[in-house]
From TrEMBL:
It comes from Paracoccus aurantius. PANTHER family: OS07G0260300 PROTEIN, THIOREDOXIN-DEPENDENT PEROXIREDOXIN. Residues 8-159 form the Thioredoxin domain. Residues 165-184 are annotated as: Disordered. This is Thioredoxin family protein.
Length: 184
């Protein structure tokens, strides 16, 4: 059953993190922050919603990086239950799709909880002051192939944030698979 992200809490500060990428290199929020804003994405390998948009995620991330937006993806799923979401498979996915941004693993799931991530994909767009300005979807396609003229909602919102420091007030929440939380 698909899960939706929550609405944007405008101005909420970006939680810091210290997470490793698939080669073991550590990153903090400050390491990925761009001069004009930052995009933090919660994704994973197995989710059909992510699988259907991963090429567009890379396309938009590369375009956003060119205008000063820092980009990072984080996988927080329980890898004991979903081993395909673990670091080695993450490395393969990132290489296959030519990710131009770090793909980090959140083994304790503390970062996903700090961000209040709900689903994969879940997008958090911050301005240059690390204030939340976007908590919407990539586009309207969901897990279907996108129409050629589909509006690039995430890209447009982040470009607006880069220009003005403010996100659009009308946002449609992202939808996808739930974060796969570890049982306590």
């Amino acid at each position: 059953m698909p899960v939706s992200s929550t609405t944007c809490e405008f101005g909420a500060r970006a939680p810091d993190f210290l997470l490793a990428d698939t080669s073991g290199r550590l990153f903090r929020y400050a390491d990925i922050a761009g001069p004009r804003g930052s995009l933090v994405m919660f994704i994973c390998n197995h989710c059909p919603y992510v699988q259907s948009i991963v090429d567009r995620i890379q396309r938009d991330a590369a375009a956003l990086q060119k205008i000063g937006i820092g980009v990072v993806a984080i996988s927080s799923n329980d890898v004991e239950t979903y081993p395909q979401d673990g670091p080695e498979k993450m490395r393969i996915l990132a290489e296959h799709h030519g990710f131009t941004f770090p793909y980090l693993y959140d083994p304790t799931q503390e970062v996903a909880r700090a961000y209040d991530a709900q689903c994969t994909p879940d997008f958090f767009g911050y301005n240059a002051r690390s204030e939340l300005q976007y908590r919407g979807r990539l586009d309207s396609s969901g897990k279907k192939p996108a129409e050629p003229d589909v509006r690039r909602e995430l890209f447009e919102a982040m470009a607006l944030i880069a220009q003005t420091g403010q996100g659009p007030r009308e946002q449609v929440p992202s939808m996808g698979c739930s974060i796969k939380w570890r049982s306590e």
